[in-house]
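[retry 2/3] AAA+ ATPase domain-containing protein: previous attempt timed out, resubmitting with same input.
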Amino acid sequence: MSGRKKWVTSAFNQISTIDNAKVATPPAARSPGVNLNKTNGMKRNLSDNFETVQESGNNNVTQNMSQENWLNIFAPNHVNELAIHSKKVMELREWLQQCETKQNKQPAQICLLSGPSGCGKTAAVFALSKELNFYIKEWINPVDQEIVHNLGDQGYKESYKTSQWEAFKSFLFQASRYRSILGKINDKKRLLMVEDFPNFLLKSPDTFQEILEDYQNYGKSPLIFIVTESRSRGLNISYNLFTDQFKQKFLIQHISFNAIASTLMQKAMKRFCSIMAKNTEKEMYKVPDSAITDSIVVSAQGDIRNALINLHFAALNGIPGVLVTSSEKPKDSKSMIKKRKSQSSLKSIGKDESITMMHALGRALNPKYIDNQQCFLHSPEDIADAFASEPKTFTNMLQTNYLSHFREIECVAVASNGLSLSDLLFQEYREDTLPHTSLNIAIRSVMVANKQPVSAWLPIKAPKRLLLKHQEKLPKEAAKFLIHPNNISSNLYNTDYNIYVKIMSQQNK
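[retry 2/3] AAA+ ATPase domain-containing protein: success.
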């Protein structure tokens, strides 16, 4: 065996080499000078080891500081510290007070709290529940793992698995009826909160309706759903899951929050900076100046969570300064005498500007320039990036509405040439990057060709859907005007010849 080649590496080779290195060997005879150098080397090694121990200790301290949840430091403890409109806070307080009067009575009270990201929905619920002495029990989606329970009277491989539907239903009924062993003693007023929706609710709304029917009859505690709204209706849970008929059936009170105003955001930023200025937080933070805080407010666009994260990274000790860019916007384009309003925004961090379809179409169909220069105020690349998920829809809207915004036919020819090229590139499905390139070409061709846009109120029109009538034979009217033999397919007739046949038939009447 010793002469053969070993093809298996032992897992204990490292341990064996360490043991062999620890075997005592007889020391060789050395001179006194050599021993002196050896002792000096030992002293240097000891000092180096002591410095490494100190560095590791400092690293452990910073690691323990970073492991703490720093968001809890800035969480509002009272209702007065919320950066939310007072009317919305009043609506939520009135609903919780109504739940107190109708405690342990059917039907169970249900509320839907919706709004954009970072508008303070969860913080408002926690602050008001603390004021009114409600004990919150929050649903958190379990880890996606298969839990198999084997029964004693079953054979091998015969078992059952707990589903997410059963876990969610048991949470609603058990948490509303029974107290928690680890909770407070006087937790009679319980509030159930669902913010992390299970996946099965989005796939089967009928199952969600059955669960709420049972909860209204047997539930003992109020239930609140927190939903973040999105621009696309396909991803909007409040639009798809909580329809108007659904809310009327289960008597769900809908409270909609708006994005946080700039004045309330400035007030919240002052409170965050005052917390950073405390002695307990000076080791971690340095209070930024007013220019950075103002730029953070502009870049957040009403999202207080985004503003707090940006402020956290901008105020940390030992990091370089945050880059700030200034953008000038005219107050009134007609009067050139008025001064321009300048505001700064963050360059490296911040929330991307979210624009709607109508705003983007207005920027593409009515392009504006910076100080009469050959430079667009709104970049075509930014408009294309904002609608990279739906390039075909935006291009169809451009093709439907671009003609009425042009003055000269020569400019229309240039724009139509670019739109035709964009439509041709959309047909290529084997390359993933071509749809974004096609959208970019369509936007640039319309903006560059339209040198003098029409200054009038022109409403945006939706693209018309062409319904193809699949027929075996062409209509009798078409046979009068088409060249014989008229062997034309139904698709080609409906797309190219149908409109001309209608015009010619009306003229002959």
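[retry 2/3] AAA+ ATPase domain-containing protein: The longest strand covers residues 324-330.
[retry 2/3] clearing retry counter.
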